[in-house]
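--- STAGE predict ---
source: upstream dedup step, 1 unique chain passed
mode: sequence only
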Amino acid sequence: MAGKIPATVITGFLGAGKTTLIQHMLRNANGKRIALIINEFGDLGIDGDLLKGCGIEGCTDDDVIELSNGCICCTVAEDFVPAIEKLLGRENPPDHIVIETSGLALPQPLVRAFNWPEIRSKVTVDGVVTVVDSEALNAGRFAHNEAAIDAQRSADDMLDHETPLAELFEDQLACADMIILNKMDLLSPAQADDLEAKLRTRVRAGVQFIRAEMGVVSPQMLLGMGIGAEDDLSARHEVHHHHHDHDDEDDHDHHHHDHGHDAFETFQVTRDVIEDVEGFTALVTQTIRDHNILRLKGFAQVGNKPMRLVIQAVGPRVDTYFDRPLTADEKGKTSLVVIGHAGLDRAKIQTALAG
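--- STAGE serialize ---
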């Protein structure tokens, strides 16, 4: 691994706090040149735009490369290697690369891509970090949880297998070198201990657990693990689907896999400005509840205010905050991305959010 640039893969479910974790990392980089590659699932580059607009000194647009067309395991041949090569070709190459995967992307195919000849000799996977929304998991959301599965079985006798979300979460745990138990301030000490104990039974030996609040984790903890995860793929088994590594290096053409992303759908909703943040938050909360939306996020203009309102919603939680002045293209409108299980009633959701 000597001479290779380390890359950290950060994965986790929707709203677990990956972007917040990265923002804290950048603000406390202490001069380390950290480049970002963002794999965003949706029609808007929400997370990438938030990072570009974060106001962190030294965080320029050129340091963020968005892979905006979805699942990393299907775009890797077209986008990932060129993105890495672009970073390596910079006059001042980064000290470290951080890759934020989509909340709906599998981490294993991304780690596997580091074995491709184009980049294997230049970059190594320093470690895979999985961020967990501790409150959601404790409540049985976005995870294969005994209480949640029992409740589903009691409501539907046909449910005798894991849901796609549960399998995806197992993949994220299987690939992790470090698990960040985020939002631990929302659990009691007993709940926190119980959650960590249960997760430890579902991961490989030696996986590190870090408890965090608001994504505050020292970069010294996240970076510099020196794992070389691309050399340890056999231990990072995939539950969701299985790839086969080939001895022939030429046999890595781009193929579409049965990756299960049809279990989810995403679409964009646009409307005019909003006048009342509290009222719009209540509207979003009710729409999420009525239509079982997994994630909703986006931007809005509030009345004549010059600042952009960011909207981030996961399950029943809706967070809003002003982050920066609106651009000319953003003025006078609201843009939202809705993510949920396949079969969402787009027309009704559009009508509901229009108020």
